[in-house]
Amino acid sequence: MYSTAATSSVIHADQAIRRRAYPANVTFHDLIRSNKRKSAVLMVGMIVLLIVVGAAFAAGLVLYSGGGDLPSLVPSAILGAGAAGIVGLIAALWSFYGGSNAILRMSGAVEIPREADPQLHNVVEELAIAAGIPKPRIFLINDTALNAFATGRDPRHAAVAITAGLRQQLTRDELAGVMAHELSHIRHFDIRFAMLMATMVGLIVFASDAFRRILFYGGRGGRSGRSSSNGKGGNPVMIVLLIAMIILAIIAPILAYVIRFAVSRQREYLADAGAVELTRYPQGLMSALEKLGACREPLEAANRATAHMYIVNPLKSAMHGEGHELSSVFLTHPPLHDRIKRLAALIQ
Predict the structure, then answer these.
(1) What is the CA radius of gyration of the chain?
(2) Reading across the β-sheet that carries 148-152, which strands appear in turn?
(3) Which residues have a catalytic role annotated?
(4) Rounded Cα–Cα distance for residues 293 and 194 (Å)
(5) pLDDT digits (tens, 9 = 90+) for 18-51
């Protein structure tokens, strides 16, 4: 479908000096399977964290109020875990059905008719056929920054968006690489996954903040006599449990963000591998990523809530210093040089 001609001697020389990111027999199918396993493990970890937080905070509130001993905390913990699961399900359903349109409106994206950009429509249509999914709607963000993203709860309700700046900068092969990356997100149900992760992080952060506020303002409310009222306030075990729950309220949001960002980084690697599967031409996406990495203009419409959806970090913080080359557990995207190196390892 796209150019498969032999690369130039310069590219061959460049490949020869690159340190391969994987063993010589690795394929994009291996990468996809590996990233799916890692993402599934991280998703289970997030669900468990949400349930643990709900259980711990419900028991902690009972304990803080002096309303019971250790055995009596079990029903409260079970109730808290169940409530966390139900609230999480409701919030996930809301983001599932309403999140995509909200993101498109937030980004200022406008749908492009075929006659306005036939080449872009042709590229996306060919890639959708290769991926075995319906052609997504295509949107343009009127911004000179270089970026793109995909959204939609499933392939039948999907959309891809590209900035005007990136559209003008890319060759056809580079455009195919970027769009194949975004269609891979759709094909792998990454958007649904990302919205669920974001929802759970939001719930964990909200619950942790609410728990800390109740403890803080409750302690200032003149309830110092609650311990002596039932004679159990001095129990060392109960005190240790309460301290542990306070610590959990502090570290749970941090852990939730770390898990979410780890999932986001794994999904970027997975989409890169999926793009190679669709185009059979890693050089197209590699070249596009190099152009994206050279851009120092942030995307005005992007924010911290939507940054993980873009092909590279669109925020101002990613445009200074090492920018896209930074590696950290608190970043939504892996270093660009690592992504390019992994793609280079797939060139046969």
Answers:
(1) 24
(2) 109-111, 137-141, 158-163, 148-152
(3) 182
(4) 23
(5) 334 455 566 656 656 665 676 667 667 777 888 8
Q: At what angle do helices 190-219 and 172-187 cross, to 10 degrees?
A: 60
The amino acid occupying position 121 is H
Return contacts of 4-10, CB within 8 angstroms, 24+ apart: 4/280, 4/281, 7/283, 7/347
Alpha carbon distances (Å) from 300 to 312, 316, 323: 14, 9, 17
pLDDT in tens, 179-236: 999 999 998 888 777 777 777 788 888 888 888 777 776 654 444 444 444 444 456 7
Give 133-159 pLDDT, tens digit per residue: 999 999 999 999 999 999 987 889 899
Classify 62 as helix, strand or coil: helix
What backbone torsions phi and psi does residue 138 show, to the nearest 5 degrees? -120, 130
* Cα–Cα nearest to 49, from 258, 195, 241, 242: 258
Please state the φ and ψ torsions of residue 281, each to the nearest 5 degrees.
-145, 80
Cα 264 from Cα 255, distance rounded (Å): 14
Largest CA distance in the chain: 83
Tokens representing residue 270 in the block: 């997975």
